[in-house]
């Protein structure tokens, strides 16, 4: 389990990370969100032991992260970090040896990994000859060659088409099933919703929202109910907690201020001829925009 406890990091007078704490359990995928410059990369570098926090601590399975255990961590950076004049095989051997593997151990693994990502034929091709999507695959393989117990994924699906995104997702789920702790950062909120149970949103290095995503979505005030059937619009508008009722196509869009209003609305219409009653929670994208906007 990864534990980040009250870490603080300044660059001069600028506070890049401000008293940040969170935990990522074994086999858990955790979302770390924020705009550019929010402190995510600094947090990653502190976790990796590349930067020292000014205060607070980071531990992995109860131990301070240093060079004795960084070989069990994988990191996929947002920026390309490949040596483009190397061949795929040379690149993977290079990164594998840096992670403490022998050349033989790397060679024993790479054919299966390249095959899994449908790029075995590119094994002896130079990195610069590969498409951006295939380069991203090599970068991902480099991050997981060492069978990490902690994996940090920063915008992992950059440059990938839907088929290759599905390929990445399948392997990430495989790592999760094997007990790998995963930190997932992306500006594509649908991926966060799909993968993560818990998350933190950072603004200027400080957590402004954290917890289980299902609870965050439930607590967020914006809720929509879509109703289709023989319903009187004015009767629903009278219910306390209903913000508005609008006609959209052949159905009603009912905006409510909390999930607690749902049973009241249902009670009002349950004896009517109803063909649709759908409660739609706010999307994570809507929550992110609203919460970040509140503190700016």
Explain this structure to me?
This protein has two domains: 2-216, P-loop containing nucleotide triphosphate hydrolases (Rossmann fold, 3-Layer(aba) Sandwich); 220-294, Alpha-Beta Plaits. Helices cover 34% and strands 30% of the residues. The chain has helices at 40-47, 88-98, 103-116, 132-144, 162-177, 189-195, 213-219, 233-237, 262-269, 284-294, and strands at 2-11, 14-24, 29-34, 55-60, 63-64, 73-76, 150-154, 181-185, 198-203, 206-212, 223-229, 242-248, 251-256, 274-281. Strands 6-7-8-3-9-10 form a six-stranded mixed β-sheet. The chain is globular and about 75 Å long. It starts with a strand and ends with a helix.
Outline:
globular
Number of domains: 2
- Please state the second-level CATH architecture of the largest domain: 3-Layer(aba) Sandwich
Number of helices: 10
Number of strands: 14
Write the layout of secondary structure elements.
Blueprint: E1 2-11, E2 14-24, E3 29-34, H1 40-47, E4 55-60, E5 63-64, E6 73-76, H2 88-98, H3 103-116, H4 132-144, E7 150-154, H5 162-177, E8 181-185, H6 189-195, E9 198-203, E10 206-212, H7 213-219, E11 223-229, H8 233-237, E12 242-248, E13 251-256, H9 262-269, E14 274-281, H10 284-294
Parallel strand pairs: 3-8, 3-9, 6-7, 7-8
Antiparallel strand pairs: 1-2, 1-4, 4-5, 9-10, 11-13, 11-14, 12-13
Q: In a few lines, what is going on in this structure?
A:
The chain contains ten helices and 14 strands.
Main attributes?
296 residues, 6-stranded mixed β-sheet, 30% strand, Alpha-Beta Plaits, 14 strands, 2 domains, 4-stranded antiparallel β-sheet, Rossmann fold, alpha/beta, 34% helix, 10 helices
